[in-house]
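Format notes (please read before filing issues)

Several people have asked whether sequences and structure tokens are stored in separate files. They are not. Every record keeps both together, in the order shown below: the sequence lines, then the token lines. Line labels are part of the format and must not be stripped during preprocessing.
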Amino acid sequence: MDAFSKKELSEADIRTKFITPAIEAVGWDKMNQMLENLYFTAGLIIRRGKLVARGERSKADYALYHKPNIPLAVIEAKDNTHKVGDGMQQALRYAEALDVPFAFSSNGDAFEEHDRLNTLGVPVRELPLNAFPSPEELWRRYQQAKGLAPEHLDVVTQDYYPDADGREPRYYQQVAVNRAVEAIAKGQERLLLVMATGTGKTKVAFQIIWRLWKAGKKKRNRKHAFDAVPGSHGCRPSPVRQACCERAAT
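Then the structure lines:
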């Protein structure tokens, strides 16, 4: 029986038969370091008169992680009627939103890489299908570009607090937490995070506190569990902040 022509294969077939095996062959752990079809936005709200609908959700074909919640790369796949780099603009949009340094595009013949940190001095290059970077290579290049020394890694790689209902932080919360923790690990003492109402500021603050405390970077200080909340006697404890500290103490 004759084999199918590569050009006849769908994008899903190209991913299953060529891209996924190439990624796994260099050591990416499918269970702990790879997510496929990562939907990370709910879609733009569209209003037409009294009708309200959602636009198309943003979806990365692949997201690759050093470990959960520490993303390193996105890959956009296309079928084989496209050129290798035809998915790159889409991959770059997703990489910017997710704050990942490495964007890849593939049609099953090869990979095109765009290194947003220019870690090799060549921001764009084409790689054979069997030469996709290993997890160790991308993590090493990430550390070098970000100026992360060995003494910073315990803090930067500290696990997130596991939410009781299993929900992961939203992509922009993850970006805020990771950027803040990296800056503090490198010695920065003051940071400003600007987030709109309803975007999860308390969740972000708690995850930063949790990771720093569990990594031993900062000690628990009950002073920080109080907000200037008007009360009958000046200020009183903020219940939310107090709850955060109580959870961190367990």
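For reference, the curators noted about this record: The radius of gyration is 21 Å. The beta strands are 34-39, 45-48, 51-54, 59-67, 70-77, 102-106, 110-115, 124-128, 226-231, 234-237.
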